[in-house]
UniProtKB/TrEMBL annotation:
Keywords noted in UniProt: ATP-binding, Cell membrane, Kinase, Membrane, Nucleotide-binding, Phosphoprotein, Transferase, Transmembrane, Transmembrane helix, Two-component regulatory system
Annotated TM spans: 12-29, 35-55
Biological source species: Paenibacillus ferrarius
Protein name: histidine kinase
Positions of the Histidine kinase domain: 121-328
PANTHER family: HISTIDINE KINASE, PHOSPHATE REGULON SENSOR PROTEIN PHOR
GO MF entries: ATP binding; phosphoprotein phosphatase activity; phosphorelay sensor kinase activity
GO biological process, one term: cellular response to phosphate starvation
Length: 336
């Protein structure tokens, strides 16, 4: 991690060192400038700069060191980005299948269901070579190439996971398993997925968990958190304030907030952000957004009786709030 940090800051480290050497050279060549006092000043400023680097290193990597100490399962998902050939194939297949579903008669339903199952099976099979690819990437010594490949690998893996949950959503009620779970553990696992991306952008996390135990479905709750945290990282400026994830209890209900200090959402867009396919009217040229992440997250939350709210201001940031149902309401979801 130290080498990655130094490479990320190499340009301005070299700039400072070049300035110090230039100052020494001028003092050495110009006999009217006393050399020893200048050497002493350079020594002091270089020492202060080294201390500054150490402090910033600890601050910017403290959270990710904590992640390395926790055992987490790498379960990746969505960060819908600019369209790639792979994404085009998947989206075309899904669009064709949806069109056929809407136009087919009841007699063709079985065939279409089989095609759906085959597509889901194909998605699972693609994950196997992607896992092998990640292991190969981790062995690379070139940190710059490693970071670039990891980011592209993450985009594909997240896209696959989104498509998988999109196909499962209509039959989600058959897939729910309500149980006690640890919010902190799930959140750490999702953040660890985005670790390399966050380090690249110089973004950390501030986790404040007053309440950690909730009744919900682990797989679908992780999917919802994935969308919110991924969006928070995506729309935060590099080296901006930490993303805050907090939980608390109020009026016998548990709340979970994901707050970023990024570009924010225009007030005229707020009523539509959960609509299928809606991206933005303010940043309409943002081709990285597909408008599916928040739509799917909202649908999944409604199925689990989780209320999802959002507050945002342009240039200030965005806060998503999940309000969990009371225990008796959560247990009734699956008839427990």
């Amino acid at each position: 991690m130290i080498s990655a940090y130094v490479k990320e800051r190499l340009s301005w480290i070299l700039l400072v060192l070049f300035g110090q050497l230039l100052l020494l050279l001028i003092a050495f060549l110009d006999y009217e400038i006393p050399f020893l006092p200048i050497l002493y000043i350079v020594f002091l400023t270089t020492t202060l700069f080294a201390i500054f680097l150490v402090i910033r290193y600890n601050k910017e990597t403290r959270f990710f060191k904590q992640l390395e100490e926790r055992e987490s399962t790498l379960d990746l998902s969505i960060a819908a980005e600019a369209e790639s050939p792979f994404e085009h194939i998947v989206e075309t297949s899904m669009s064709n299948l949806t069109a056929r579903l809407s136009l087919s008669a009841s007699g063709h339903q079985l065939t279409l269901e089989q095609e759906k199952d085959e597509l889901l099976s194909w998605i699972h099979e693609v994950k196997t070579p992607l896992t092998a690819m990640r292991l190969m990437i981790d062995r690379l010594d070139d940190e710059t190439m490693k970071a670039a490949l990891t980011y592209e690998w993450l985009r594909i893996h997240l896209l696959l996971d989104q498509q998988l949950h999109q196909k499962r959503l209509p039959s989600m009620e058959n897939d729910l398993y309500i149980e006690h779970m640890d919010l902190e553990t799930i959140t750490y696992a999702e953040i660890k997925t985005l670790k390399s991306w966050c380090i690249q952008k110089g973004i950390g996390f501030d986790l404040q968990f007053e309440i950690t135990d909730v009744l919900s479905d682990a797989k679908w709750l992780a999917f919802i958190l994935r969308q919110l945290i991924t969006n928070a990282v995506k729309y935060s400026e590099s080296h901006s304030s930490d993303i805050v994830v907090r939980s608390f209890r109020r009026d016998e209900r548990v709340f979970l907030e994901v707050q970023d200090y990024g570009r924010g959402i225009d007030s005229k867009d707020l009523p539509r952000i959960f609509d299928k396919g809606f991206t933005s009217t303010t940043w309409h040229q943002d081709h990285a957004a597909t408008g599916m992440g928040l739509y799917l997250a909202k649908k999944a939350a409604e199925a689990m009786l989780i209320q999802m709210a959002v507050h945002s201001e342009v240039g200030v940031g965005t806060t998503f709030t999940l309000t969990f149902p009371q225990p008796n309401e959560a247990l009734r979801i699956t008839g427990m």
